[in-house]
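Here we describe the complex-level prediction in full. Unlike the single-chain runs in Section 2.1, the two entities below were treated as one system.
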Amino acid sequence: MILSHPQTTLEPRAKRRSALKSALKVMKYGFFDLLRSRWIIIYTLFFLAVTSGLLYFGGDANQAVLSTLNLVLLVVPLISLVLGLSYYYYTRDFVELILTQPIGRSSVFLGHFSGLALPLVAAFLLGSGLPFLLAGVRQGADWRVIASLMVAGTLVSLIFSALAFWIGLLNEERVKALGIALGVWLGMTMIYDGLLLLFSILMQAYPIERSLIILSLFNPIDLSRILVLLQLDTAALMGYTGAVFQRYFGSNLGILASLGSLLIWTGLPVYLGLRSFKRKNF
Amino acid sequence: MVSLKQVSKTFGNLEVLKGISARFEVGKITAVIGPNASGKTTLMKSILGLVLTDDGQILVNGESAFQNPVSRAQIGYMPQKAQFPDNLKPIELLNWVQDLRDEKSPRLHALIDYFQLGPQLDKPLRVLSGGTRQKVSAVLTFLFDPPVLILDEPSAGLDPLASSRLKDKILEEKRRGKVIILTSHVMSELEELADEVLFLLEGHIVFQGTLAEIRERTGEQKLERAIAKLMEGRAL
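The structure predicted for the assembly as a whole is:
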């Protein structure tokens, strides 16, 4: 737009407050709509069943954390992507209706996204947190390990549902978007690790620690795994990148580094989604 | 008043609006007509801020329509096909929008009665027929008594009773001094409602005037024939 826009009369602070209020109202809608859908209930029950099962049969709580971790790193990204995309397309027309109301686009996007992401996080925390809480009371579990698993699952839910929104915003076609999402999932859960392994075998003769650490920063799933495994302090379980991380940073700094990178990873897709949403023609 | 100054919009390499300038006056119903894909919907969505224009200026009662939510407080919009969340009931939807805008409408119950929505208020929107949803959309459009109304094929899918009630409502709002912009392919609707016609062809306004002027220009007495002639570009 080249010509000037008349400014609104609201003070900046009042404007921010009303933007936040609108975002919360948009969120409230999505939140309750999703809670009524059966998918989120199935998702919660799935985690409840699997985590309880692992705890019951696995015996040791730390071992159950490990098994749950592997499951979380596979299932949470997939469900967040698929559920995120179907929610995005299912609400697309409705978002158009919200945008015809006097509410800014940032509020609509952030409210809409939280309306999806918070139920997902809640389902994960309830489904896998509750069994650990109950078992932990009995078995005297290591709270730090369980807490790091909850943090990792929460951040992975946020990252991949934000990616789903962004992919949806960039693609009008649902099928194409789903294909891209599955590609992202396969790439980050499996292919990336395979390539990393291949890289370290081929470069065996060279000092590649630093480059491995840098490479693992590019994959939020690796980062989440490292975050939890560093708490366990058993190098044998860490896998190659985890072990390198611990040797390079030490446990505490390693935790900070992986957590920090994960937080950046959470912000990035939300920001990219917001940017496309603000520029989109509906 | 709604005014457009040299508004243009390109999607990819498709130029949809090519420097449109127009004014929509208070107390007047303007029908935007033109063949499919002539830019009608893009024009309306630009006024609503749903489509972000590349160039030019759109003012809605003095407020720019570009990335400015304040301008949308002035507009009631009835889309061609209303889409609502399946799990919601009409009454929940209407209450939610009121909550969203922080504005309770004193017109709510009168409008529900007027469009005879009472019996359907408590059923989920997914089980309601297209016509009933269209009535919900009509209630939403008039709910906050906005000074500007944008109606995209408003009576499509409505039964004759609901359709004539809607038309009466539109005429009443016109008398109350609203700016009304609508599209329609139904000739009788244009005859009944439109004070003025704005004719779009390939992203340009090729004609603006009254229905009588269209007839005069084309030499056709039947409105449908006259408009068809305009669409073929024969009378320009």
